UniProtKB/TrEMBL annotation:
Species of provenance: Nonomuraea guangzhouensis
Protein name per Swiss-Prot or TrEMBL: ATP-binding cassette domain-containing protein
Sample GO molecular function, one term: ATP binding
Protein's UniProt keywords contain Nucleotide-binding: yes
A Pfam family per the record: ABC_tran
Domain ABC transporter: 6-236
Keyword vocabulary terms for this entry: ATP-binding, Nucleotide-binding
Amino acid sequence: MRPGTIHTRSLRKSYQGMRAVCGISLNVEAGEMFGFLGPNGAGKSTTISMLCTLLRPSGGRALVAGIDVRDDPKEVRRRIGLVFQEPTVDTDLTVREYLAFHATLYGLGKHDARRRVAEAADLVGLTGLGDSLVRKLSDSMRRLLEIARGLLHEPGVLFLDEPTVGLNPQARAEIWEHLRELRHRRSITVFLTTHYLEEAESCDHIAMVDRGRVVADDSPAALKRLIGTDRIHLRTGDDQAAAATLSDYLGLASAWGPDGLYVEVTDAATAIPWVCTVLRVPVHSIEVRRPSLDEVFLRYTGRTLDGVARSEVSL
Ligand SMILES: Nc1ncnc2c1ncn2[C@@H]1O[C@H](COP(=O)(O)OP(=O)(O)OP(=O)(O)O)[C@@H](O)[C@H]1O
C-alpha cells in the first residue's frame, strides 16, 4: 500500500438514524488531486471527517495511507494534514508565531520546527511574511496559512474541506495557483471537497456524491466523454452547402436550422482547423459547446449541482 492512498469500502454514517453517508467506496491513488464534488448536504464533510478520524463510521471500512481509521486513528492523524471549512487562524499572532506554535503541537523540536515553518510558508507562497500579523493578511493568505499549518508535519495526504468557500473569485484563483504549485513541488495526495465545478475540473480524479452516495467516479475528461461529444455551432453564408461539404470531405454529419449549422465531433479543437480549411462558403461565426460536469451530475441525479431539477434547466 503506497503512503498517500485512500481506500474506502461501503463507508457509512448515520446521525440519530438519519443516513448521511450510505455506503461510499473510493480508491484514491498516491499523489492524486482528488475532488469530492456534491451539492450542500450530500455528505462530503461527513465523509472527510470519517477519513480524518474526527467521526467514527457507522459501518464499512476506510484505509488512509494504509491505516484503518477505526483501528489506529492516532497513526492516521500523524500521516494527514487537515484544513477545515471554517477559518481557524488565531489572529493575534504573526505568521511565524502561528506556524511555530502548531509545529510545537506536532511535537517538533526547535531546530526541525524552524526549518519546517520556513518550508511550509514557502510551499504556499508566504515567504517574507513571517513577521506579518495574521489579522492583517488577506482572506486568501489566511487560508494559505492554514494550508501551511496542515503541511508542517510533512503528511502524505492533505485533506481540504471546501478550501475556497466564502472567498471571492480572485482569492479562489490564488489558492488554486498555490495548490497546483504544491502538487508540482511535493508528491502529496490532496483530497478536497468542493461544490465548485471549475475546481473539480482542475482535479485529476473526482467522485460526484449525492444524498450520501457516489454517483460518478473518474477523471473529469472521462466523465464528460460519457455525456457525449463536442458540438460546433457554425453560421455560414450557405449552411446547406457547408453541410454537404463537411459530409463529403470530412465525413461529418450535421444538422442545420434557422440559427445555423450544428456538427458533432470528438474533439472540437482538432476538428475546427479542418472544418475551416474545407469550407468554400463564408464562415460568420464558430462556437463550441463542450459537455460539462454539471451535465454529468444532471445525467446521474436528475438535478444540477446547485439543486435545480431537470425540468427547470435548459442545457
Ligand atoms: N452532526 C450532525 N447531526 C445530524 N445531522 C447532520 C450532522 N452533520 C451533518 N448532518 C446531516 O448529514 C447530511 C450530510 O451533511 P454533510 O455536512 O456531510 O454534507 P456536505 O455535502 O458536506 O454539505 P455542505 O456542502 O453543506 O457542507 C445533511 O443532511 C446534514 O444535515
